[in-house]
Amino acid sequence: MKASDLFVIALEEEGVKYMFGVPGEENLDLLESLRTSTIKFITTRDERSAGFMAATVGRLTGKAGVALSTLGPGATNFVTATAYAQLGAMPAVFITGQKPITKSRQGSFQIIDTNDLFLPITKLTKQVKSVNTIPSIVRETFRRVEEERPGAAHIELPEDIAAQMGEARIFPVTEVRRPLAEEKAIRKAVVMLMEAKRPLILVGAGANRNRTARMLTGLVEKTGIPFFNTQMGKGVIDEHHAQYLGTAALSADDYIHCAIDRADLVINFGHDIVEKPPFIMKRNSAKVIHVNFLPAQVDDVYAPDLEVVGDIANAAWQISEQLSPQSHWDFEPFYKVKRALEEEIATDSAKEGFPLIPQRIVREVGEGVTKDGIISLDNGMYKIWFARNHKVSYPNTLLLDNALATMGAGLPSAMAAKLLHSEKQVVAVVGDGGLMMTVGELETAKRLNLDLTVVVLNDNGYGMIKWKQEAEGFKDYGLSFSNPDFIQLAESFGMKGHRVTKAGELTALLRKAHEEKGLHLIEVPIDYTENDRVFTKGLKTLVCPV
């Protein structure tokens, strides 16, 4: 069998349904093998987009997504997407081509050491040197990227190796059960919770896994303990739940931190080191219980008092089985904070000025997207507003990146989500800066006949950095640009273009786009002066309501 055929069969055995990429001449054998396979190859307009889409497949399914590029510039374009998957704990495999390694007549043309390039930003990087090693390399790669903590891997398939003939057997895919937490650690956690006066549950990025949502919801409902989450823990437990306090969208000094400061114990399910914990370890602060697949990585801001190491879902179930509500628990200070935050959000989101303020945009998007619909955010100031103000009902229905936090990922991620969930409403919310970084993928979306809506927030600049610049007392400089006519841009891609001109229109347009199907782009002028009023000045003078 030809090596490229064997490689594709090994990918099929792993359950790969899609591969995204921009091929080069070094990939032609592999491309031919894909042509007659069960894997659908989707040509993108940029390698970064292919990588973002592969990572999103991994995020939504728990099974590795796959992306393909050629050597040299194709491989270097993968770097951002690879780091995105690695830092975001999204299982993804990045395959690159290479010139012949047994006999090359082109010197060093386009050749860089891709294995060294990807080594710092992957869990594993391998060059295929023989057809016989393909099955073991593929199996080990997928095993590594999908086990906790998930992440990225890289495989280099040189042109001459892909064309080799050889024999090798495919390795079967076997499931490995995660180890369970030790009974003594569970019992100690239960005792600490029983002895606490004001315990709090924190849901982090590591808890955003299959099966975990149900177990954590059961724990919350049985015990009555309030919970909050990090940005990447949103939706693990329904945020419309009465015990939901809010999201730690900022590192400190927001309403939710008033509640954290009143807690004497925080049980942290799924802390991920890429998300700084929303509390700073200090003398006489709350005790912390770390519940995760892996032990804690201790640093200046995170040093837990107890570690419960093992499957998070099972640990939550074990704790729930042994813990009942305690009469001395006092949660009223937490709920005072919740009421104050929700009152502020309700007041601000009702404002009808134009251009729309972020709070109003969050509200209108929330009202215009179905409860089980998926909102994919690019990176910008609006991400903080969505994390703080938008309540999520189900896991992975608000796709945001609080790890690498790269611009340009929002649109490709939405496209991948729509491929996997054609039955759901999917909306990409992107800034004008982020959209223009991967704008070519609008053609890809059109070619794939996706029913997708893109909301572009227009402030003619890099809004988040402008806010930081102003907060530091610097003059406005170097962060502004002009934009194309987004309506004409949308129409040039065969999309329907819309522009919001007043409050209330965004919700109506989102519902209309969902009903009409097809590709829609909605331009929304945004007023970011609220950043300064709420986050810079307002939170500095915030008096905790407890």
What labels would you give this structure?
single chain, 546 residues, alpha/beta, Rossmann fold, 3 domains, 6-stranded parallel β-sheet, 18 strands, 17% strand, globular
What's the layout of helices and strands?
Blueprint: H1 3-13, E1 18-22, H2 28-35, E2 40-43, H3 47-61, E3 65-69, H4 73-77, H5 79-87, E4 92-98, H6 114-118, E5 124-127, H7 134-146, E6 152-158, H8 159-162, H9 183-195, E7 199-203, H10 212-223, E8 227-230, E9 244-248, H11 255-262, E10 265-269, E11 287-292, E12 306-309, H12 312-322, H13 332-349, H14 358-368, E13 374-377, H15 381-389, E14 398-399, H16 410-420, E15 426-431, H17 432-437, H18 441-447, E16 452-458, H19 463-471, H20 486-492, E17 496-499, H21 505-516, E18 519-525, H22 529-538
Parallel strand pairs: 1-2, 1-3, 3-4, 4-6, 5-6, 7-8, 7-10, 8-9, 10-11, 11-12, 13-14, 13-15, 15-16, 16-18, 17-18
Helix pairs in contact: 1-2, 1-7, 3-5, 3-16, 9-12, 10-12, 11-13, 14-15, 14-21
